[in-house]
């Protein structure tokens, strides 16, 4: 079920995509309560939430709040915003994560997600999977009929034998029309180099002509059984709430079915 905020006044200019991200992020931060430990997401949408949390901490509105970052980039941003940071695990035991806030690349009708096109999928899944609640913030362009409709589904793989692992991933979808997969590269000094995650791994990008069809959990299991695959970017059944900023300025809340 979803709920929507009131529409903006007639004649108001439509918000930009970045403004939509900020609106959704600020709405998500309303779920944060004093004393919470938060999973801090990665990406441009999550960055707005970090800034808002930092503002509220400085204003004294969120005493005792701390965060567990999902990437080195988020760790740096959160530190600059003044958010106290904790490790996922340590000598004192793992932090209890009350709430995680992060964006998503795609959201389907069952609130399954594609995440990690920026390369942080492993830490995101570890931290957000450890939390009690996971609030996802997106603009309506991220809503899809099937995962894989709008771009790559990332798979993190160990560097050793990565071309071999790529071949095994391709075999999972052998014969599927429109499927392709490649190792992600980045340009550096006019040359192509392998993209390397915060964990020192590579990313395989899987592309589907019309999204993934079939049982997502079976496909997930097939990928994770491949030796050399660390994790993939399908976040299945993890989101408890999705906050959608719409082009008309309204905000819709989608909740996980019980």
UniProtKB/TrEMBL annotation:
<comment type="similarity">
    <text>Belongs to the ribose 5-phosphate isomerase family.</text>
</comment>
<dbReference type="Pfam" id="PF06026">
    <property type="entry name" value="Rib_5-P_isom_A"/>
</dbReference>
<comment type="pathway">
    <text>Carbohydrate degradation; pentose phosphate pathway; D-ribose 5-phosphate from D-ribulose 5-phosphate (non-oxidative stage): step 1/1.</text>
</comment>
<dbReference type="InterPro" id="IPR020672">
    <property type="entry name" value="Ribose5P_isomerase_typA_subgr"/>
</dbReference>
<keyword id="KW-0413">Isomerase</keyword>
<protein>
    <recommendedName>
        <fullName>ribose-5-phosphate isomerase</fullName>
        <ecNumber>5.3.1.6</ecNumber>
    </recommendedName>
</protein>
<dbReference type="InterPro" id="IPR004788">
    <property type="entry name" value="Ribose5P_isomerase_type_A"/>
</dbReference>
<dbReference type="GO" id="GO:0004751">
    <property type="term" value="F:ribose-5-phosphate isomerase activity"/>
</dbReference>
<dbReference type="InterPro" id="IPR050262">
    <property type="entry name" value="Ribose-5P_isomerase"/>
</dbReference>
<dbReference type="InterPro" id="IPR037171">
    <property type="entry name" value="NagB/RpiA_transferase-like"/>
</dbReference>
């Amino acid at each position: 079920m979803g709920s929507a905020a009131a529409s903006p006044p007639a004649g108001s200019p439509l918000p930009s995509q970045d403004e939509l991200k900020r609106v959704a992020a600020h709405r998500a931060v309303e779920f944060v309560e004093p004393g919470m430990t938060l999973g801090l997401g990665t990406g441009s949408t999550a960055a707005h939430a970090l800034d808002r949390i930092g503002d509220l901490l400085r204003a004294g509105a969120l005493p005792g709040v701390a965060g567990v970052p999902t990437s080195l980039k988020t760790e740096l941003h959160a530190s600059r915003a003044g958010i106290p940071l904790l490790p996922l695990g340590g000598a004192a035991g793992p932090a209890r994560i009350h709430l995680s806030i992060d964006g998503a690349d795609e959201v389907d009708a069952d609130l399954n997600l594609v995440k990690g096109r920026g390369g942080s999928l492993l830490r995101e899944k570890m931290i957000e999977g450890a939390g009690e609640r996971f609030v996802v913030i997106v603009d309506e362009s991220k809503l899809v009929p099937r995962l894989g409709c709008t771009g790559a589904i990332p798979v993190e793989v160990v560097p050793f034998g990565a071309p071999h692992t790529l071949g095994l991933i391709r075999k999972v979808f052998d014969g599927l029309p429109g499927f392709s997969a490649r190792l992600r590269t980045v340009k550096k000094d006019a040359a192509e180099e392998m993209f390397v995650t915060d964990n020192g791994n590579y990313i395989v990008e899987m592309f589907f002509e019309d999204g993934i069809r079939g049982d997502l959990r079976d496909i997930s299991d097939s990928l994770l059984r491949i030796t050399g695959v660390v994790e993939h970017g399908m976040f299945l059944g993890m989101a408890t709430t999705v906050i959608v900023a719409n082009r008309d300025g309204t905000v819709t809340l989608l909740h996980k079915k019980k």
